[in-house]
Write a structure and sequence with these properties.
The complex is a heterodimer of chains A (294) and B (137). Chain A has 294 residues and is of the alpha+beta class. Chain A is built from eight helices and eight strands, in the order H-H-H-H-E-H-E-E-H-H-E-E-E-E-H-E. Classes of the chains: A alpha+beta (294), B alpha/beta (137). At the A-B interface, helix 2, helix 3 and helix 4 of A face helix 4 of B.
């Protein structure tokens, strides 16, 4: 069994982010550019046809160009919807969930989603809309990749001070300990879910066992996340970066300053925190931090 | 009036309508504030409303306009033909729903003509508006 260090885990997280960025860039730069080039070429032909009095042929070709443009509009919309659905801003999370689940079931016809919504749109703070959407997107992505299920129950309910999102499937489940030790793609994805919930000031619990399905429960506070403050002092945080051999920079993580006595904080002690995050096997010579006010 | 934050789209819209309806005045607004200024300054009959506006969305703006100017006809314009948008537009009081990528000028033109004819003859809101703007072909 392969045991993954923290630095390896961060590298895999970064790799996944890079792959996603690469996929979007490829769609934008390669596929769309190719299609636009084709349109450009076709329009050039139409200009020549009109100049040569082949008006009817020119008009027919223009109709073809129009259809190509409609196709590109759909593809650009698809990319935009995936990144940040406009429904989030225009209507809110409930309509976005409705759209997303419908699209999901059209794409994955073998998986049924039962939604259980017990919250009103005006009870969901604006800052949580995107968090909930991204967590749902990631959770259902895991369902498709790993669960082999045919049914997902999705709950979005209002707690006393939190909004609770639960995604529950009746699939094959997994051995949580084993996956974590192996640093599998599933484990990485679940870590990412936990991290997203924590950034929003909440938490995310995952429960799974082989043959018993998987339940992801995220609890997100309705009040915006505010770091603990000491009196009226501003809190500071440290963004840690790692520079690899090719001088490429990667974010390692962010740490809030926790020590009670700021005089005890030195550059060296801060870097030591960064080393702890990076893990013992990481290249700790090439890390640096940026101090930011929170 | 067109309420649309995208200037090229506003210009194309106006540029196509004006030659056909030279007697018609088309007011342009890029956001909710400008829309209400237009409504307060001109006797506006028909509004083409984009959904994705900066600040307040076209849906919320439609709800507010309908509350204050109930006789104004509002045609919702959007790039996304989703059931959720159609339902939200109806909830907000929009009179019809047009998707930009399937929008055809003869459709828009027929709608405006119908509107103008009804207004000129009997001064009533035309009943053909909804028919003229049914979903994509």
């Amino acid at each position: 069994m392969k045991i993954e260090t923290k630095s390896q885990k961060f590298s895999r997280l970064l790799k996944r982010e890079e792959e996603e960025t690469k996929r979007i860039a490829k769609e934008l730069h390669h596929d769309l550019t190719q299609s636009l080039s084709a349109i450009n070429f076709d329009l050039g032909e139409v200009v020549q046809q009109v100049k040569g009095d082949q008006i009817r042929t020119g008009i027919e070709n223009l109709e073809g160009v129009r259809l190509q443009i409609q196709e590109i509009i759909k593809r650009v919309q698809g990319i935009g919807m995936h990144l940040w659905p406009p429904t989030l801003d225009d209507m809110g999370i409930l309509d976005t969930i409705s759209w997303f689940c419908r699209e999901f079931q059209e794409t994955h016809s073998g998986i049924q989603i039962k939604t259980h919504i017990d919250i009103q749109e005006n009870e969901v703070p604006d800052f949580l809309r995107y968090v909930i959407y991204k967590m749902l997107q990631a959770a259902l992505d895991d369902v498709v990749r790993y669960s082999k299920t045919d049914l997902v129950d999705l709950f979005l309910v209002k707690g006393n001070t939190t909004i609770d999102l639960t995604v529950q499937d009746n699939g094959q489940g997994f051995d949580m300990e084993k996956e974590a030790l192996m640093g599998s793609g599933l484990s990485l994805s679940l870590d990412s879910l936990r991290r997203r919930a924590e950034i929003a000031g909440g938490s995310c619990a995952i429960d799974s066992a082989i043959g018993k399905g998987t339940t992801i429960r995220a609890s997100l506070p309705m009040e915006p996340f505010r770091p603990a403050v000491r009196g009226e002092e501003n809190m500071v945080a440290y963004e840690f970066y790692w520079r690899d051999e090719s001088e490429k920079e990667h974010v390692i993580g962010i740490l809030r300053e926790r020590r009670k006595n700021p005089e005890r904080i030195s550059d060296e002690s801060i870097i030591n925190w960064g080393r702890k995050i990076l893990g013992t096997n990481g290249d700790t010579k090439n890390i640096y931090f940026i101090k930011v006010d929170v | 009036m067109t309420v649309e934050d995208n200037l090229p789209f506003r210009e194309v819209f106006k540029g196509n309508l004006l030659p056909e309806f030279p007697s018609m005045e088309i007011i342009e607004a890029a956001n909710g504030e400008e829309a209400f200024k237009g409504l307060a300054s001109y006797p506006i009959d028909l509004v083409f409303m984009d959904i994705g506006l900066p600040g307040e969305s076209g849906l919320e703006l439609t709800r507010k306009i309908k509350a204050k100017y109930k006789d104004v006809t509002i045609a919702m314009l959007t790039s996304y033909d989703l059931a959720e948008y159609r339902q939200a537009a109806a909830r907000c009081g929009a009179d019809c729903f047009i998707t930009k990528d399937s929008m055809k000028w003869d459709q828009i033109s027929a709608m405006v003509k119908c509107f103008q004819r009804a207004k000129d003859s009997i001064g009533l809101k035309p009943s053909c508006v909804r028919l003229a703007s049914e979903g994509p072909p």
